[in-house]
Amino acid sequence: MTVRAKAVKAKDEKVTGRLSRTFAALRARNEKALITFITAGDPDIKATKDLILALEANGADIIELGMPFSDPMADGPTIQASSERALRKGTTPEDVIDIVAEVRKRSGIPIVLFGYYNPIFQYGLKRFAKAAASAGADGVLVVDLPAEEAGELKAELDRVGCDLIFLLTPTSNDGRIKVTVDKASGFVYFVSVAGVTGARASVSRGVPGYVRKIRRFTDLPVGVGFGISTPAQAKEVAAFADGVVVGSALVNVIASSGADVLLKNAGAFVSAIKAGMRQG
Amino acid sequence: MKKMPDNLGHFGVYGGRYISETLMPAVMELEEAYRKWGASKQFKDEFAYYLKEYVGRPTPLYLAERLTKKIGGARIFLKREDLCHTGAHKINNTIGQILLAKRMGKKRVIAETGAGQHGVATATVAAMFGLECEIFMGADDIKRQSPNVFRMKLLGAKVTPVTSGSRTLKDAMNEALRDWVSNVYNTFYIIGTVAGPHPYPMLVRDFQSVIGVEARRQIKEIAGRLPDQLVACVGGGSNSIGLFHAFLDDAAVRMTGVEAGGDGISTGRHAASISGGRPGVLHGNKTYLLQDKWGQIIETHSISAGLDYPGVGPEHSYLNDTGRVEYKVITDKEALAGFKALTLSEGIIPALESSHAVAYAMKLAKKLSKDSIIIVCLSGRGDKDLDTVSKAFNYQL
Hints:
In chain A, about 50% of the residues lie in helices and about 15% in strands. By secondary structure, chain A is an alpha/beta fold. In chain A, strands 1-2-3-4-5-6-7-8 form an eight-stranded parallel β-barrel, surrounded by ten helices. In chain A, strand 5 (about 165-170), helix 9 and strand 6 form a beta-alpha-beta unit. In chain A, helix 3 (about 45-55) runs parallel beside helix 13 and helix 11 packs across helix 13 (about 260-280). Chain A is globular and about 45 Å long. By secondary structure, chain B is of the alpha/beta class. Chain B has helices spanning about 25-40, 40-55, 65-70, 90-105, 115-130, 140-145, 145-155, 170-180, 200-210, 210-225, 240-245, 275, 315-320, 330-345, 350-365, 385-390, and strands at about 10, 15-20, 60-65, 75-80, 110-115, 130-140, 160, 185-190, 230-235, 255-265, 270, 280, 285-290, 325-330, 375-380. In chain B, the strands form three sheets. In chain B, strands 3, 4, 9, 10, 11, 14 and 15 form a seven-stranded mixed beta sheet that branches. Chain B has a four-stranded antiparallel beta sheet with strand order 1-2-13-12. In chain B, helix 9 packs across helix 11 and helix 10 packs across helix 11 (about 240-245). Chain B is globular. Chains A and B meet through helix 6 and strand 5 of A and strand 2, helix 1, helix 8 and strand 12 of B.
């Protein structure tokens, strides 16, 4: 194979990752992606595996699996508490990768590992990328790793065909959007508020405009999250974004459900959100 | 060596910007503001004016004669940052940052604080310039540094207790970062140490470097030569960088950063990030951190709230790796002995943070000849620590 052919093949593989395929398939059906966040190990590791499958069965299209960190600076009280619970259970990055491998035996749902940089850095970037990819993870999102510092991790993830997903925010100007989408693959996650994670009463007005702005710089799908907690909000966001991310609201449902009703409650919540999106 | 960091804030492999995207434009705006105004004559003059007329600089470089005699080794000079307005070196930096905040049109300032000295210094400049001020402080630190909490409140600041995590300085910093993300348009975050995302480590160092610039001039006037050794305590490391920076290119001047050894490194109950940790990423920069095998940050321990932090400024990590500065450890017990020795021999009650530097200087002086010179950064005064110290010594107040 020529160098050029290799490059084209590499590019094709990149655009045909599981995340890209999922967005493309949904687009073909005129549907938007429901992206659900849960923290690995909350309430425990076994429950996390069951939860992922239950979320998928009830309409989730992509799973963001939180890797708990001791100092979640970008998170509000809900996910802080969830991370603390997971850490108290002794959840390690290896456990998180094992969860992915287990789920992968039974499901093809795209999984994005979502976390902070230090645990990945300590794991070793190369080792982490290899382990994540061979377990079947499709993407990695690191909250405290802006494009400028992401070169090394990006190189390792490229090598194993795993996407690196970046956040953009209402404070991102044209310059920031450009540097960021340049390194991004899979999709772009637009954080709808300048703030920490957490359920909010309404979606702020300027969001459609920001999403339009991002689309001027990239053809990647745009997911919108931070604060979305009701079917009505999900419907509103689905009207202009390619994906809707639900995190804290789902984590709240999990936190307030006993073991016997955990899967039922989480499933019902996700199914209601998905129904809201389908009305759009 | 003085030219660090590079334009993305790296000191060798350390430093940088590891923060959420929401804050990237904010730190870039700050960097831009500092580049634009920081170098201007008007800014420098205004900064120098307040340091002189408001802070009371230059602070004396005082020969601790009785302490020197008692030990019988090198001459020990104290750089008297404890005589700064508000009682510690922290005000040098907050004046610099508030002058930037004002120029950037920010209406509100926030800060994290451990011992409360940076909180007081921030509340002070906020009062002085009429800006709204909120201080984040670990709930445990609020208990052990209550006089400073009261001072901040008197100065009109809102003091918000932080109950997450270990309820100390690192958690206060997490909470300040969360507040900043949520109020990024109108709020200026005054970081109190040489850590955080670029440009903070550079900015805070530059504002604190007045300590070393003065000390270098003063010792040449007093002794006609440069010192042999510099000693300063290191939590995040702002007073030590402040003292060291002006001497970095003086190859003959040796420097020691003194970390908080708590109950001793071997017990695991300490706050010595360089001596007992390894490189990682926290609070916006890559640096030495106290962490477990998996990269989770572990709880620290020090009798001194101001040193009770699991990280250290990235420039210190760099200076350690290059060998330019040595990092040593002083335990709680040794720090208390230093506290007592200075108080009784010189009539100066040092902060527990600074007592670590004093204790190490006493060890070092013993090994050096009588014509050697040590400069110790006496970063703050000990009034805030009387409660802690009286408990440790079992005094009845």
